[in-house]
Design the sequence.
């Protein structure tokens, strides 16, 4: 297995942190070795997001994703890549209880997948845990704003910061995770001016998704930007329509099989 440490040219968490205010950071999610190998050529970091529960496994939310599932997909992405930093999401229920529980589970993720960092959701409430992990050798990417694992508390996937009175709380979340040692922070589903303000206020890179073009970097769910999801969030630009391409290919195959036009061994293996 190719690991983060074997390849010295892999991007590291401190290198991402040093990109604050510099060239925009490119990132995408990936859950499998083959797509990760393509993304690896263009992305600074690849997130094995717990969105895989919804995108790959047809779950209604990310809440049901297990640590084992994240480790399995994390291993595949590390195997498929050489250059980008691989960040693996900590799933719901594996880090919130205490810094010690978070360390035990995050250490498993790092050791078993070979990834270079983990991501967890939450601002102020996760500050102690972020500090505990980073002081013990685990680079942490934070994630604030719309945090999908809290969908039951938030009452759905809602853009954050529509009410300006709530801005100080989001700004405090960002400041506190940066002070606790996070090397970067994802700003998800946040009104544009708030995300732009936070980006100016903190000294770690902000990675936007449905936030602001002024963030230090951007991330999208790969299947969303490839047109593979039946439902795509409004803010996502679809860069390729793979869904219809796959359907056309499967249809041609099915027709060839049914009409016995499927190429025989002598045509295929030449
Ligand atoms: O799980 C995920 O894919 C994420 C991104 C949307 C940031 O957390």
Sequence:
């Amino acid at each position: 297995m190719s690991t983060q440490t074997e390849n010295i040219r892999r991007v590291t968490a401190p290198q991402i942190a040093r990109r604050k205010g510099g060239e925009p950071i490119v990132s995408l999610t990936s859950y499998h070795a083959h797509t990760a190998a393509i993304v690896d050529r263009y992305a600074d970091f690849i997130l094995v997001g717990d969105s895989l529960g919804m995108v790959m496994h047809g779950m209604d939310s990310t809440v049901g994703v297990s640590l084992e599932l994240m480790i399995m997909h994390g291993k595949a992405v590390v195997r498929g890549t050489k250059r980008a930093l691989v960040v693996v999401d900590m799933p719901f229920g594996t880090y919130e209880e205490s810094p010690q529980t978070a360390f035990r589970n995050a250490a498993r993720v790092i050791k078993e997948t070979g990834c270079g960092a983990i991501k967890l959701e939450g601002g102020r409430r996760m500050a102690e845990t972020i500090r505990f992990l980073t002081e013990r050798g685990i680079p942490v990417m934070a994630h604030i704003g719309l945090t999908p694992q809290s969908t039951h508390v938030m009452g759905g996937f809602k853009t954050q910061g529509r009410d300006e009175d709530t801005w100080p709380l989001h700004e405090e979340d960002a400041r506190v995770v940066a002070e606790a040692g996070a090397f970067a922070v994802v700003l998800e589903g946040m009104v544009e001016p708030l995300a732009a303000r936070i980006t100016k206020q903190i000294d770690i890179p902000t990675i936007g998704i449905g936030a602001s073009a002024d963030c230090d970097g951007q991330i999208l769910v790969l299947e969303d930007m490839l047109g593979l999801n039946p439902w795509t969030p409004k803010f996502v630009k679809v860069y390729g329509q793979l869904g219809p391409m796959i359907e056309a290919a499967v249809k041609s195959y099915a027709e060839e099989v049914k009409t016995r036009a499927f190429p025989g061994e002598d045509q295929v293996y030449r």
